[in-house]
What does this fold into?
Amino acid sequence: MRITGAVLERCDAPAPFAVSRPVTVGELDLDPPGPGELLVRIEAAGLCHSDLSVVDGSRIRPTPMLLGHEAAGVVVEAGPGTPVGVGRRVVMTFLPRCGECEACGTDGRLPCSVGGAANAAGTLVGGGIRLRRDGAPVRHHLGVSAFATHAVVSSSSVVPVDDDVPPDVAALLGCAVLTGGGAVVNAGRPRPGDPVIVVGLGGVGMAALLVAAALGHEVSGVDAVPGKLALARHLGAAAAYTPAEAAGLRAPVVVEAAGSARAFETAYALTAPGGTTVTVGLPHPDARASLSPLSLTAEARTVVGSYLGSAVPDRDIPRYVELWRVGRLPLERLISDRITLDGLPAALDRLAAGEALRQVVTFGKDDS
It folds into this structure.
């Protein structure tokens, strides 16, 4: 079928992206789903820092590649042997899980090795490519490629949700909430009543803040952009500080969600003796941080890396849905803008400047 989508033509384009235009919107051909795959009509797709990191070259991926990895939509066709039926709303997650490799047996601690290899290659889990433009293949972004009217994905990349979950809320569950919330719940594991600090108040950091607050923890937010501090307090933070203002603050669980070495150092400095520093940010591969090895031993510290919030999507997404359903997790408040595919270059510039949380591309039923 013919679809419309946003294709990254090259990595490492200079900002502003509204001028360099590394992303083009146009028509592509999408093959039908194969065995174990689904054709999904996209309803909403969030713009995440992981999209930006491919555009600016922090994460090199094969191009051309149809971007977008945080999304929700409705299944319109199911390939043979697919357990999800036509008509179901699904959350699309960016790390498919084969369920059979050694990493899949770690209860989310390690990302699926099969899914990770497919993501790096720009293919679906089975190794296939379903996207073409003028007869030439276009790579898939993290098994999803959701900045398009439709996508073909592996059934291992989706989690069904009920129709009462709005598409834009459902989309956020696939990355921001799984990653930020999981950093708290699965990796940090604060005890009841423990305070939590979140360093880096972008979409993932604010999701971590919301989940921690929903679970009854006193949360403090830290960010170098002063404009984000008032929003953090509005979303439920007991307090919010710039890094300089936070000096001397301590908590048993500190989550770093900024994706920079300086933010990691800040998070580590704010972690109390005996506490856990959780890092979910994805800095440039060349980034290096400095910390005292002595403090790890003398203060019994723990540093934990958490990819996709150490999540098992089938297990975790229903938990977050229930928190949202009872009014404890107001995910709608994470959405800063609703945009179109044509608005992606300018939206990338806003994201790079720290001016947005989650900008969501929305599609109507007639967008095809």
Remarks:
- The longest strand covers residues 37-47.
